[in-house]
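As a warm-up, study this chain.
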Amino acid sequence: MKISLIYDFLTESGGLEKEMANHAKMLREEGFDVEVLTYDYTQEAIQRAGFDVPIRRIPAIRTRYEFLNIFLSVFLSFLGIYTLKGKEPDVYITYSFPANFLIREKKAKKINFLNHYPHFIYLNNKEKIEWAMGTNGMKRWVTLVLSWFLGDYFKKIDAKLVKNSDLNFSNSNFTKKVVDQIYGINSVVSYPPISSSFKPSDKKLSDKYIFVAGRIIPDKKLEWLIESCRYMKNKLPIFASGDCLEDYKKKLLKLAKKNKVDLRFVDKSREMLVPYYTNAQVFAFPTPGEDFGLVPAESLSCGVPVIAWDDGAGPTEQVINGVNGFLAEPYDVKDFGKKLDLAIDLKLKEKNYRKILDSSKKFSYDYLKKDFVKEVKKVLNSP
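Now compare it with the structure written out below.
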């Protein structure tokens, strides 16, 4: 049987891209014919995410510009002029609203993986602007402008597409609660799997540091971490690994200098990521209201404690207070700094090393694969 996974673009490397790569690998290992469909991708992004299945570009009109490939394809699909061509699979697995819309007329079974609701539809205007600033190019800005005029229409279409799916996954209990209420559905929780490559590394680094990883964009709030470090007595540098827009990087470095914080952007290659996780004193996750948060789980799987917000969001399903990290008072940067100090002073990494590793097992690739594949097969075998 053939399964096609669809997402708008694979030109950046973040949690969703890793999630798709692992889902594709799980299904391929079960004997399915798996492909990934996207309007555009880069070799660097797919290599860092770990894709090992065929990836096919599906733009309505192919140009040298990512923005045009995506915008024209989505626009023409909305007009009904462009439809996905090629052999139809037995099931589509989609990861976004545009992907859902593209396959709306297809007869194949449809599975929708909800990492969150569509931000360009449901966020307030301030949050939408911050969201649009989180990627290169104009693609999110154009989407944002369209949402100002067509937001209510998009909400109706989005709700219809989600309800028409044969199965809706959500990536955490936090996300499930939100999307089930918005759409009136009963989604199935399936945590994003952590690749087996995330395990303690034998490579030793001499520095002592606080680590942060993933896409470094405005809505991840690295500013809050920098401000938190101002209140710490343990003056460790922050090592940051991940894609970062140049203007945002300059802003962060300026803020770090002002607060006398040593911020270093380190090697973001796939080969160095695990050693950076493994050798950190503590991992910091200052993002508010995160739906799941793949990087905290990756840190735990490398034996490093995590500091996150006690805001009821996805990371609170990962961090066991005082065992594998600490949860700070929501959005209190001073308390976040105190929790970083506490993890370091208690030597939580050394003291609870085995407990930290054990806490990550429920997010491991092998643990999650069975239920994910079972749910997909259930859809395939349904009438």
